[in-house]
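Take the subject:
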Amino acid sequence: MYLLVAMSAIIAPFIFLVVLRYPATKGMTWSALIVIGLALTVWGMEGKLIVSSVFQGIHKTLTILWILFGALVLLNTLRKTGAVDRINQGFQNISTDMRVQVIIVAFLFGSLIEGAAGFGTPAMVTGPLMIALGFQPLAAATLALIADSTAVAFGAVGTPVAVGLSNISVTDLNFFKEIGVTITMLDLFAGTFIPFILIVIMTVFFGKGKGLKDAWPMLPWALLIGIVYTSSALLYAVIFGQEFIAILASLTALVVATFTARQGWLLPKTSWQEALKEGFQSNSNQSDMGIVSAWMPYIIVVALLLMTRIIPSLADFTKTAIDLSWTNILGADGVTSNWEFLYSPGTILALAAIISVFLHRKSITVFRDAAKQSLTTMKTTSISLISTLAMVHVFTNSGVNVNELVSMPQFIAESFASSLGSIWFLVAPFVGQLGAFITGSATVSTLTFAPIQYNVAMQVGLDVKTVLASQIVGAGAGNMICVHNVVAASAVVGLSGKEGDIIRKTLPPAILYGLLIGLASFLLF
C-alpha cells in the first residue's frame, strides 16, 4: 500500500504523459493533485508543510524559467544579429550531414555547457541551436535531452560528485577522485555509445523510413568520438579529479570531431539531411561576420560560467550580491529554494545576449525584440513547471509526517533494497535514474539516495565506490527523462504539449544506459 503511494509520483506522470499523451500542463497538474492528495491523506503530511512545498516548487519554477529565458533570448538575439546564420555556415563548412552536426552540437558542445553550468542548461541551449540549424523541433528536443547524459556526472564543475556524496561519512578529496575514476571506467562501456545512439534515434524516428540503414555507416566515426570522449575523461579523472572532466573531455573530442569531419575520415560519402524541418532554407548569402565573432557570445557564456565557479572571490560575490533565495518557507524548517541571481546560468546567458548586441554592432532594440519573442514562447511553460515542481517537493519533503514514515523516495529505495540486494549492481543505476526522473537533478538524486546505496553495498558486500559511481551515472542518464527538463526542452523549441512524445523516445536510451552501467559494474567489479 505505502509503496504504491510512494510510487505515485512516478506512475501518475508516466500514465498521463506517456500512455495517455496528455500535454504537461494537464498531465502534470493531475499528477500533482494525486500526489498531494495521497501525501495528505495516506502519508500523513501536514497541510502547512504541503503548502510550503508547493511554494517551494513555485519559487524553483522561477529559477528555471529564468534560465529558459536566458537561453531563448541569447538565441533570438543572435538570430537577429546574423550570428546564427554565420554559425550555420560554419557547420556547413565542417559537414552538411545532420548525423555529424548532432554529435558536435548536442553531445560535445552540450557536454561543455554541462561541465560548466549544469542546472539542465545544455538542452535549453543546444535544442534551440539545432532548430536554427534546421532540425525538426521534436528531433531537436529529443536529441538534446539524450545527449545531456554522459557529462552530467561531472556537471557544474563536479557538483554531482562533491555535493551529491557530501552526506556520506567516509568522503574526502581522495574518495571523490576515486569515484570520478570509477565513473569514467564504467562509462567506457556506456557513454562511449551515446554518439551512435543519438544517430540511431535520429535516423529511426526522424528519417524517411530507412532507419538503421542510415545509422550503420556512421558507426566507425561515432565510436571514435565516443571513445575519445570517455577515454580522455578517464585520463583527466586520474590526473585532475572530478571538477573539469566534462569540460576537458568535451573539448578534446570537439577537436577530434571537427578535424575528422572536415577531412571526411570514417564518414560516408553521402550527406544525410532527412531530419530537416519542412520548408527550412538556410541563408545562402555568405556572411561577412567572422566565425569567432559569431561564436563569441557562447564563448563568453562558457568563460563566465567557469569564472563564477572556480574563482573563489567571484563565486562568493555572485552568490551573495543578489540573493533571491527563500529560506524556511512559511516557517517550515529546511523547506528552502535557492536563487543566487548573478550565479544563475540564466543571468549569464542574458548578459551574453546584451554583450552580443554591442559586439555585433546592432541597436539595443534587437535585444528588446528578442526578449519579447522569448517571453511569448514561454507562456504555457510556467503552468507545467509549477505543477511538476510542486509535486517534486511534496514528494521529497514527505519524510516529515504524523505517521513517522520515511520520505517517499527513501521508502521506494529501501523497498527495492530489501528484495534486490543480491543483484544490486544491476539495480543501482536505475535508482539514480529514478531520483533524477523525479527531482530533475543528478546532485539531488545522489544526495537523496547515496546513503541508501552505501548501506546496501556494505550489507551485501559489494564494492562501495562502484555502487556510488553507478548511482551518479544513472542519475545523469535520468536527465533524458526528467519531467521538468523535458518540459523546458520542449518549450525552447516551441513544442509545449508534446512532452509525452519526447519521453517515449528518450525512455529506451535511458533504460539501455542503465543496463549497460549495471552490466559493466556486475562484470568488472
Q: What stands out?
A: Residues 47-81 form the longest helix (35 residues). The radius of gyration is 22 Å. The mean pLDDT is 92.
